[in-house]
Known about the structure:
Blueprint: E1 4-8, E2 15-19, E3 22-26, H1 32-43, E4 55-61, E5 64-72, E6 81-84, H2 85-92, H3 97-100, H4 107-122, H5 127-141, E7 152-155, E8 161-163, H6 187-193, H7 203-213, H8 225-233, H9 241-257
Antiparallel strand pairs: 1-2, 2-3, 3-5, 4-5, 6-7, 7-8
Helix pairs in contact: 1-8, 4-7, 5-7, 8-9
Amino acid sequence: MRTQADRTSSKGNQNKWHRNGIWYKADGLGYEALAEILVSGLLQKTNIGYFVKYEYARIERDGMVFHGCRSADFMRPDDDKLVSVERLFQTFEGESAAKAILKYEETEDRIRYVVEKVEQFTGIRQFGDCLRKILTIDALFMNEDRHFHNLAVIRRQDGTYRECPVFDQGAALFSDVKGDYPLDLNLEACYKKIQAKPFAADFDRQLDACEALYRNIRVRMWFTMKDVEQILQNFQEIYKEQVLERVREVMRMQMRKYEYLFL
Length: 263
């Protein structure tokens, strides 16, 4: 499979291509595709509802072969435009969202401010509920890359806006083995090193604040470790056993930690 329209992920090394209504992403830092596929597969057994589904893709480019993933383009080509929260703030406020929230010290105030502004800019109601879903997913799967470019809405051709599906979990599960989380780094060290985005560096601080603010939805999960294993079995000849075992252990730990989501 050969594609065009190169793009680069926020961490700088994951190449992306678009072809015939399909997005392809190649592993650049480790096992990003595995993270995307596992997370989206497990989200099918939740009440999240609106998220991008990923599947494995073997990508050939410039004589090289990459592990990767693919997903259907959720945009209508003649109509929709993806607009990040960062772009909304730049357009309507004339400043970066990341900079704008610094006027507030408390995480709860930062979240409330961004939600109110996004609803004001777009007319989308209950954006706080959307954000709660996203921050729950990020905390459970340890997705460190939820900056304001990875929070987005969709603008229609008529200028109205609609909710965007949850996307981009490639940085979850300590997938960056070439940089921050090499496979010889134990999980205790990985947990100490990782930092959340975009409202606070701590996943629980973000999630607790969002749960306190927006109570219209209770995020629920009903997948089990058996579901995790069934997905991982498909990758036994693609990724090292050391990778698969790390993912298993992270999922065991995270599912125990966030047990209340599974009740």
